[in-house]
Amino acid sequence: MPNFTLIAFSAIVDLLRLAADEGDRSRPERCSWRILAPDLNPITASCGLQVLPWETFDRPERFDYIVVVGGLIDRNSTYHPRTLEFLAAAAAKDVAIAGVCTGSFAMIEAQLMRGRKCCVSWYHLPDLVERYSDIVPVADQLFVEDGKFITCAGGLAALDLGAWMVERHLGPGRAQKSLHIMVTDAARPAAGAQPQPPSVVTVDDTRVRRAMLQIEQNLSTPQKVDDIAQSVGLSKRQLERIFRKVVGKSIQEFSRDLRVFYGLWLLANSSKSITTVAIESGFSDISHFNRLFRGTFGCAPSALRREGPDAMRGMIRRWQAAQPKALSDLQLTAKPLIYQTDASALPQPPLPQIDLERLAFLQHERRPYF
Asked: What is the pTM of this model?
């Protein structure tokens, strides 16, 4: 697609190149690939580099996969009719189609994804939700397979998707050999967590939205309220008043809640020490992190970690399963937007008492930090 993400494109192509031959001699012996477009004009990546298509769209049935690599989008983004026709023809021929980054948006525009799960990066989740209401958004995994349709968050997750394809057809040895030459040790599984949790901002006030984004993007190094206010063109007092009116919490409370849930997410999805987790979550004092964590989840981070990541995710998902009823009592009616796996398939540790009043901001802002 125009303005495609170069790293996603090159990660898949280079992995195929290495899997296709011995060493990195680049002969397409075990697999081959073609670069297609509606015409033969250069396609410009989001970084400005250009790629020349090798051929135009024709006979999709000759391929095992059609991979659509997307990238930058805007409200006026349109898709070439021939692109959509080619994707529809590929689906009709039962060819697997993979949308990488916002390539999945083209699949949706081709009427292929209605009612299906669609994986997107946390960064583009708001765009997906705003544009399309008839798909199931997934922003907590690297890629998702739903029948013949595969969607991938993009970025380096494209490398994991490429390794998955190679392993499926050429065996794990070919995938591992390619990854080793690319100086990485192993591919992450499809269900691997994205390195930043997803969020969807549903606040209409652009100043509050910008303040929220700044808080979220600086979780490890929390900014002063004065600096946030200055960046959005308000005085500290004005921002604090508007923020509390819109969000129902002070800026400090909102930041603290995001950071403690980010700490939980890091505990569940990494092997980092609790001290490191506390620092990366923006707590200079580990005792402060421990107190806030215990007050929110009913136990210390060390006790919860001993239960293991599955137990932590299971606890959170069981809380999510109970969320609509609990939050209806708080008169919060926005429905969850993040697809979640079946909680019954996960271990069921004792569920700590969680302060729903305190957690309400997650549903209100649709920012599930797990």
From this structure: 0.67
